[in-house]
Amino acid sequence: MYARTYGWDWVAQFATQDVQFGRDSNSPGDAVFGGRKTIGVGTAGSAVSTSPVTFAIGAGHPFMAWGQRTDVTPPAGLKRIREYPNAHVDGFPRFMFDRAAVERWKQTSALYFGEVKGDPTPGRLGLRPGV
Q1: What value does the CA radius of gyration of the chain take, rounded to a whole number of Å?
Q2: Can you give the pTM of this predicted structure?
Q3: In tens digits, what is the pLDDT along the chain, a chain of 131 residues?
Q4: Where are the domains positioned within the chain?
Q5: Helix H or strand E segment including 101
């Protein structure tokens, strides 16, 4: 989404900032919670978390989210995830369905950022969350 929105020059500049990718959805949050990084982009978590880490949603900037509960009131200043038009709630399952495209994106990303490191996310693996 970032490459499509901001272009490959933006991706190349982003890659110069000591970006590290981990092979699980928790690695950015773990790095921030553990004090190893100041900012994490794209992590598992909850915007309603009560931890000292703040989740931010940039106005107009694209991101992928999948809201799993509708009965939780967001903290002051945030809306329910499905109310953000830039959340692309259905984008991840659509993206993961085209496995050839996923492989092309992985290979292209590796040219900019190197190979992803680490073990896969523990648990049952599938094409998309919940499957």
Answers
A1: 15
A2: 0.70
A3: 889 899 999 999 999 988 877 776 677 778 888 888 888 777 666 666 656 677 777 778 888 887 667 777 777 777 888 888 888 888 888 888 899 999 999 899 899 988 877 766 665 555 555 55
A4: 2-113
A5: helix 99-113
